[in-house]
Design goal:
- The complex is a heterodimer of chains A (about 375) and B (about 290).
- Chain A has about 375 residues and is mainly α.
- Chain A contains 16 helices and four strands.
- In chain A, the strands form two sheets. A two-stranded antiparallel sheet of chain A has the order 1-4. Chain A has a two-stranded antiparallel sheet with strand order 2-3.
- Chain A starts with a helix and ends with a helix.
- With about 290 residues, chain B is of the alpha/beta class.
- Chain B has two domains: about 200 residues, P-loop containing nucleotide triphosphate hydrolases (Rossmann fold), CATH 3.40.50; about 45 residues.
- Chain B is built from eleven helices and twelve strands.
- The C terminus of chain B is likely disordered.
- The chains are: A mainly alpha (about 375), B alpha/beta (about 290).
- The interface between A and B is large, with 40 and 45 residues.
- Chain B: Keywords: ATP-binding, Nucleotide-binding.
- Chain B: GO terms for molecular function: ATP binding; ATP hydrolysis activity.
- Chain B: This is Monosaccharide ABC transporter ATP-binding protein, CUT2 family.
- Chain A: Belongs to the binding-protein-dependent transport system permease family. AraH/RbsC subfamily.
């Protein structure tokens, strides 16, 4: 028993206005949002005049951010729920193969291949989750197993069915497919055309707007971030996610269906990896065994930069999204400024360390009596 | 107490884990408006007993009756739905989550419809504030993390939560063991209030000074079996103390300590350390230590 708890037993002298500034500082996403502003400001100066902040340049770095953001948001929910998924990266490659083989080799309609790949991915997520909750093994190990299994399948299956590790020709199957537009093309093309017409948006030589619209990946990114934030902050399920990650026994004791929550979160990360794969396959027109390498680690970095604790129970989807934005901005910024891209990884590692130290500090602050 | 059926009753309940018999042949009744104090040393089976009551474990043998009806719980949430609320030693509180989020964890009030169903956090905040206010804890900000509360306040959030959600049976696992004197009295007052409100309370403690004032009856567990149930008017505080801690052991401890002290004083004539002073405080401060749950 410490004296600290005794002497703050009663009395209103404890009452102290918490300034809005301090409240903002203690939000989990604070680090990521301010970091994103910082790198944007940095490259706005360092990369000025290089076209990074022209319409198409912005779309470029947003697309890079969006792809990572899609899986980072799902990884954030899972990490807040107290688990990791190291199989996300392999799942991207594997799901891509699952779309391309049926669509190209077997001649299925693309929508059927997509549905097949999504269901299969979520089934793998389900197995991942069940293994973790039923055996009580750390998700780190279970999903590390799937990292290799899925990567192996992503290499082995196309070799078996097509005798190569890259399957092209997906573009040909997209024409007229009802599901394909969900993962390709642009959103709001009309709006952008109008903006160009009234002169708010630059046009190219043919008089078309320089940016056709919001790429599908960016739309997915924004939509998933909004949805995940809504779930976390607004719904019962969101409260359960925090509870599972905070203390799963405590949560179970008050009647939270911990296993259901965790398994659905694993299914959601697999689902997000499948979205990533679908977007990539339709963008490039091909699936490749080696797609998504190391993406699981990048996603975790984005989540941690976004303010989530590795131990679970704390974090934010918006933070993870901004973590992904930092990624995209820096990756493209390094490209535009002509800095040797080797330095990107140095930056990544440094960012991760700074983020973890910062989060640690924030958590301590959060638990101190305010 | 009354002629009506006990609020909760165990009949010849056994619980085995593999070949280990955690509790055997336990029978116990608790009526409305009654506080049953469960006593026993570490390993006596108290935790297994309350986990069986709260639906975490299923009894291997025997029967559990709630309000006279047989109860068969598959999970803690079944037990909760039946009005059996347990405040576990670890409080089932999550330090990094806010008071409100903890208070309503697993039972969040929702508004809206279909996919737009959301938690009514405004209402939840207000209820959490009110309920905490009722037990005399002035919550500064319901969105502050539970980790910023003191031990006593946390305990009260846990109990207030259980009562708010319509508990008919309140099971408290060592609610005062980690608390200071003042905070413990807040919790004990709250237990008395819960009893007055007609709840059946099962209260587990090591501390006779906490148990005796609020309990109506005592059940003593030892090595997994019940040594019997005693009404408060049948036993004195000292007898209870003897039963729960093994009075003989405490007496021999006292003797040992004074022996130790004598030796130290003897040594002290040569070395002049600070140890004898603290050792000398040992026996005298045992009352205070008991009060803080040792």
């Amino acid at each position: 028993m410490s004296e600290a708890t005794l002497n703050k037993d009663t009395g209103d002298e404890r009452l102290q206005r918490v300034s809005p500034v301090k409240k903002t500082l203690s939000r989990p996403e604070f680090g990521a949002v301010s970091g994103a502003i910082l790198v944007l400001a940095f490259f706005a100066v360092a990369a000025s005049g290089t076209g990074m902040f022209s319409g198409s340049g912005i779309v470029n770095f947003l697309e890079v951010s969006a792809q990572l953001g899609i899986i980072a948001v799902a990884a954030a929910l899972l990490m807040i729920g107290g688990e990791f998924d190291l199989s996300i990266g392999s799942m991207i490659g594997f799901a891509g193969i699952l779309i391309a083989i049926p669509a190209v080799q077997f001649g299925w309609p693309l929508w059927a291949a997509l549905l097949f790949a999504f269901s299969f991915a979520m089934a793998v997520g389900f197995v991942n989750g069940m293994l973790v909750v039923k055996t009580g093994l750390p998700s780190f190990i279970v999903t590390l197993g799937f990292l290799f299994i899925l990567r192996g399948l992503a290499i082995g299956l196309p070799r078996l069915f097509a005798n190569r590790t890259q399957i092209g020709g997906v573009h040909d199957t997209m024409a007229g497919d009802w599901l394909a537009p969900l993962f390709s093309g642009y959103v709001g093309t009309g709006l952008f055309q109008w903006l160009a017409d009234i002169g708010l948006l630059a046009t190219n030589f043919a008089g078309n707007p320089a940016v056709e619209g919001i790429p599908a990946s960016v739309a997915w990114w924004v939509a998933l971030t909004a949805m995940a934030t809504w779930v976390l902050l607004g719904t019962r399920f969101g409260n359960w996610i925090f509870a599972c990650g905070g203390d799963k026994n405590a949560a179970r004791n008050v009647g939270v269906p911990v296993n259901t929550v965790k398994v659905s979160l694993f299914m959601f990360t697999a689902f997000s990896a499948a979205i990533y794969a679908a977007l990539q396959v339709m963008d490039t027109g091909s699936a490749d065994s080696m797609r998504g390498m190391l993406k699981e680690l990048e996603a975790i970095i984005a989540v941690v930069i976004g303010g989530a604790l590795l131990t679970g129970g704390y974090g934010s989807a918006i933070g993870a999204s901004f973590g992904a934005l930092i990624f995209g901005v820096v990756q493209m910024g390094i490209f535009y400024t002509g800095i040797n891209t080797d330095w990107f990884q140095v930056f990544l590692g440094a960012m991760l360390l700074i983020a973890v130290l910062f989060n640690n500090y924030v958590r301590k602050k959060a638990l101190e009596a305010k | 107490m009354s002629s009506q059926a006990p609020m909760i009753e165990m009949r010849n309940v056994d619980k085995r884990f593999g070949s280990v018999i955690a509790i055997s042949d336990i029978s116990m009744k608790v009526h409305r408006g009654e506080v049953m104090c469960l006593l026993g040393d570490n390993g006596a089976g108290k935790s297994t007993l309350i986990k069986t009551l709260s639906g975490v474990h299923k009894p291997s043998n025997g029967e559990l009756l709630v309000d006279g009806k047989p109860a068969d719980y598959q999970s803690p949430s079944d037990a909760l739905d039946a009005g059996i609320a347990t405040v576990f030693q670890d409080l089932a509180m999550i330090p990094l989550m806010s008071i409100t989020r903890n208070f309503f964890m697993g039972r969040e009030p929702t508004v809206g419809w279909g996919p737009f169903k959301r938690v009514d956090w405004k209402y939840a905040d207000r209820v959490a504030m009110e309920e905490m206010g009722k037990i005399g804890i002035d919550v500064r900000d319901p969105s502050q993390p539970v980790g910023t509360l003191s031990g006593g306040e946390r305990q009260c959030v846990a109990i207030a939560r259980a009562v708010y959600f319509g508990a008919k049976v309140l099971i408290l696992d060592e609610p005062t063991s980690a608390l200071g004197v003042k905070q413990a009295s807040v919790v004990l007052r709250y237990i008395a209030k819960a009893r007055a409100d007609g709840l059946a309370v099962i209260f587990i403690t090591h501390n006779v000074h906490h148990a005796y004032p609020v309990a109506d009856a005592f059940t003593l567990l030892k090595r997994g079996s019940s040594l019997g149930t005693f009404r408060k008017d049948e036993v004195s505080r000292e007898e209870v103390l003897n039963m729960m801690a093994g009075g003989a052991e405490l007496e021999s401890l006292d003797a040992e300590l004074s022996e130790f002290q004598r030796n130290e004083q003897h040594d002290d004539e040569i070395t002049e350390g600070s140890l004898p002073a603290s050792a000398a405080h040992g026996p005298q401060s045992s009352g205070a230590r008991l009060a803080t749950g040792y």
